[in-house]
Amino acid sequence: MENLHDKRKVYEKSQLIESEIKQNPIEQFRDWFLDASESPEVSEANAMAVSTVEEDGCPRTRMVLLKAYTHEGFIFYTNYDSKKGRAIENNHKACLHFFWPNLERQIIIKANLEKVAENLSDGYFHSRPKGSQLGAVVSPQSQEIPNREFLEEKLKELEKQYENSEVPRPANWGGYLARPYEIEFWQGRPNRLHDRIIYTLEDLDWKVSRLAP
Description:
Helix content: 25-40%
Low-confidence stretches: none
CATH topology of the domain at 25-120 and 176-210: Pnp Oxidase, Chain A
CATH class of the domain at 25-120 and 176-210: Mainly Beta
CATH superfamily of the domain at 25-120 and 176-210: Electron Transport, Fmn-binding Protein, Chain A
């Protein structure tokens, strides 16, 4: 068994203190997201983990890409018939997680999810490369398939079918808006005394608190 006891680093790049934070968590997210986007050490600032709860009560986590954020919340796109889509249909709550290790930061977001308007899903779908559009049509996401060739043959067929025409967005593919009700910002600090600032939605206002690390 490999001993991992000494696998640790010292966190000392930044701090998170009440006198410097925004009072609205979306504005605080924007500041941190811009830092991550502009950092040459972060390859995909918009990569996030999305955790949903399945019918057996066990959470399932996967990485997806954040495609937009507004004062209302965070938007990503997926197949509605996928495991995550079915889980969201049964339980609208989910947890989003951003981790930017080179900045020694993470953000944990608890949210209620809802489908975005169809015109938004249409607009994003048709902004994607045609290969990505076809991939969304080809893949029966999360369903068992016989082999890799099943997908590749289906892709070839669709490439011919839509060679000179627009690919229609599948009815079972679109976006979700995650409306947050709790957002925690975590900044690594020396001696494991990390900064944890949590915003909790109470009625229409955000309460700001500090948590022990």
